Amino acid sequence: MTYFVDILLIALGAALINNFVFYYFVGICPFIGVSRRVEMAFGMGCAVTFVMTIAAAISWTMTRFVLMPGAPLTRWAAGLWLDPQAAAGVDLSILSYIVYIFAIAASVQFVEMYLRRFLPLLYRSFGVFLPLITTNCAILFACLTIMSRLVGVDDPAARWDLAQALALALFGGVGFTLAIVIMAGIREELEACDVPAPFRGVPIALVVGGILAMAFMGFTGVDNGLKTALTPPAAIVAQAPQADSGNGASTP
Amino acid sequence: MSTPSAAQRFVRGILPENPVYRQMLGLCATLAVTNNLKSAVTMGAAVLFVLVCANLMVSLIRHWLTPHLRIVIFTLTIATFVTVADRLLAAFLYPMSKALGPYIPLIIVNCIIICRCEVCAAKQGPLTAVADALGQSLGFALALVSLAAVREILGTGMWFGFRVLPAAWPDWVIMVLPPGAFLTFGLLLGLANWISARRGGKEEA
Questions:
Q1: pLDDT tens digits, one per residue of B138-173
Q2: How far apart are CA A246 and CA A221, in angstroms?
Q3: Is the dihedral of CA B5, B7, B11, B13 positive or negative?
């Protein structure tokens, strides 16, 4: 039960409370660049969500089994010519950034090939944006967040499993889609407004983004309230000492 | 279009082709780390290091680049230097490294660096590439500092942690929170556009 509450809170946190765009400022470039028309924004959001989920699965697997200190595959491979004590201490996490970038580039390539083969219409409407996803910070950010929940976490039970990592990536992508579609809807209307000349285009979009971010601040603390409401009373007492290990939203 | 010289590259990066205000690149970092001047300066220095190293390296290997693999090469070069910068920060400025968190590794996907590798370093010699990198990263740092200065003084009444405004100043906490970043940057960008329009639009966008 508490496990599902955990997943729910990660999902909710990624999609709304700590929205990738409005709270962490990742994926601002497409947020500003591709948010002129709603269909376009929705397509971009879906592509990002898709790539982010695949990249998160790859990077979780790589981190868990190869990169983190004492990871099973690395230990086995190093054990072939090192003694077991030294092999357990091998730490490849310094390579993680390079591995993540490779994982993201590979998943983008995969999605591109898949779309070209099966959904050519969608492929053509993405145009140049698909390759640009490789350098979308939102995706690398998801990989890094997952890494921070694996490497350097001493308690094995507190380490994220694959489902938690996927929940973060999938709903982070949903949150991104939500943000970019809302923005596109507003900007379509904005075309008809008489905006002062120096503010036309990007500046007014940023100001609108600021107001949206303020609206999203309203979700602060929802996760804590929900956690209290969904956790059975007995579990609260048991969990009390480690209550602060969650994703750090302020207590209401 | 003739290729600009080293000095031209350097000067252009700072204001006329400022990466943030003119080219709209690297916005994630710009918005995320500018809630105080300290982290803005650290971020500027990290980007300076990575951009100079990456531009120099790409410029040195430019004759061996193949067109369809060049982006991968750029990204790997950048990722290597970002790892170096990240480890250096963690070793010597640990609190700063903690505070900046994921935004240091996110330099890898900062569009400024890939853009400079593509536009300048892959075509011109090492000296020009380094001058270009210095100009662009100074321009980036300038933009970060301008934003952080506005946000920190309005949000906390302080600069670099020292009190500037009188203690009676009602801290506009919203300015150091996420919405403040969007608002401040939107307004400053509008201001920058207005100034350059008043100057007769001499500078190209």
A1: 999 999 999 898 888 888 888 887 787 777 778 788
A2: 12
A3: positive
B111 lies in some domain? yes
State the pTM of this model.
0.82
- Tell me the residue range of the domain where B138 lies: 6-145
Q: Chain A contact for B197, CB < 8 A?
A: yes
Exposure b/e, A97-107, CB count within 10 A at least 16 = b = bbbbbbbbbeb
Q: Do B102 and A94 touch (CB under 8 A)?
A: no
B155 to chain A, minimum CA–CA distance in Å?
Answer: 15
Q: Could you say which residues from 70 to 89 on chain B have a Cβ atom under 8 Å away from some Cβ of chain A?
A: 71-72, 75-76, 79-80, 82-83, 86-87
Q: Cβ–Cβ of B190/A203 closer than 8 Å?
A: yes
* Average pLDDT score over residue span A23-50: 82
Q: Which residue of B has its CA nearest to A203?
A: B186
H or E element, residue B162: strand B162-163
Say if B166 falls within a structural domain.
no
Does the model's ipTM exceed the 0.90 cut?
no
Q: Residues in chain A whose beta carbon is closer than 8 A to a beta carbon of chain B?
A: 22-29, 32-33, 94-95, 97-98, 101, 105, 134-137, 140-141, 144-145, 148, 196-199, 202-207, 209-211, 213-214, 217
Q: Is B81 among the domain residues? A: yes
H/E stretch holding B159 reads strand B158-159
- Residue found under tokens 């003084």: B153
Residue B78 domain flag: yes
Q: How many domains does chain B have?
A: 1
Task: For chain B, list residues with pLDDT below 50.
Answer: 1, 203-205
